[in-house]
Amino acid sequence: MSDAAEHIDHEGKTMGMWFFLFTEILFFGGMFLLYAAYRFKYAAAFHAAAAEENLVLGTVNTAILLTSSLAIALAIWALRAGKTTWSIALQAATAVMGVAFLVIKYVEWSDKISHGIYPDSPALLALGHGQTMFFGLYYMMTGLHGLHVLVGCVVICIMIYFTGRGVIDQARGVRLENTGLYWHFVDIVWIFLYPLFYLVT
Fold first, then answer.
1. DSSP line for 139-193
2. Cα gap 196→41, rounded to integer Å
3. Among 105, 189, 106, 186, which Cα is nearest to 152's?
4. Is 152 in contact with 98 (CB distance < 8 Å)?
5. What's the CA gap between 179 and 164, in Å, rounded?
6. Are 80 and 173 spatial neighbours (Cβ–Cβ below 8 Å)?
7. Cα first-last separation, the chain
8. Ramachandran area for residue 116 (φ above 0: left; ψ -120 to 50: alpha; else beta)
9. Over its length of 201 residues, how does the chain's per-residue pLDDT go in tens digits?
10. Euclidean distance between CA atoms 159 and 152, whole angstroms
11. What is the sign, positive or negative, of the torsion defined by CA atoms of 102, 104, 108, 110?
């Protein structure tokens, strides 16, 4: 493939990823608007419900995702610099941190469920409509975000395989770059989710 053709292919794949991320922004944006509407209607109930959240675990997960974004960015830099081994190691570190995020989220969910706080549970319904909406949105939005993290981890593992096989290298790194864009998007979504569910005032 000529340099011009490779450039066009690179640009096309990048534009495709940005279009995909735009549709994801619309998707999550709709949920954020829904949250805002109910937050305005049930301000006191949302504040009371947020007080039940584990701020320590939420903060740790935020730190993990921010660090993972740095790791994937460094993985891309290492690939461009021809440091394939470093790139693979940093990609692996990103995936491990993604799994750690999911494990912590599992611990959070399990604790809530063990206390009877889950959608349509008698304990949750007894708290009133406002808190029911808060936790309903919590499970829906953090669950969908967690699914995106899981997909990202799987894709990063595929990128590790491709990098190790030489399919992705210094001259052909668009797949890893697009994976990095996706991972940064997942990180940004969590940066919005964190204050909405853990720092409600």
1. HHHHHHHHHHHHHHHHHHHHHHHHHHHTSSBTTB-HHHHHHHHHHHHHHHHHHHH
2. 15
3. 186
4. yes
5. 16
6. yes
7. 56
8. left
9. 444 445 445 666 778 888 888 899 998 999 999 999 999 999 999 988 888 899 999 999 999 999 999 999 999 999 999 999 999 999 999 999 999 999 999 999 999 998 888 888 888 888 888 899 999 999 999 999 999 999 999 999 999 999 999 898 877 888 999 999 999 999 999 999 999 999 875
10. 10
11. positive
Return left, alpha or beta for 120; rule: phi > 0 is left, psi -120 to 50 is alpha, else beta: left
Domain 3-198: CATH architecture, name and number where available: Up-down Bundle (1.20)
As a whole number of angstroms, the distance between CA 186 and CA 182 comes to 6
Contact 90, 155 (CB under 8 A): no
The 3-state DSSP class for residue 68 equals helix
**3-class SS of residue 49:** helix
d(CA 184, CA 75): 13
Q: What is the four-CA torsion angle of 189, 193, 199, 201, rounded to 10 degrees? A: 110
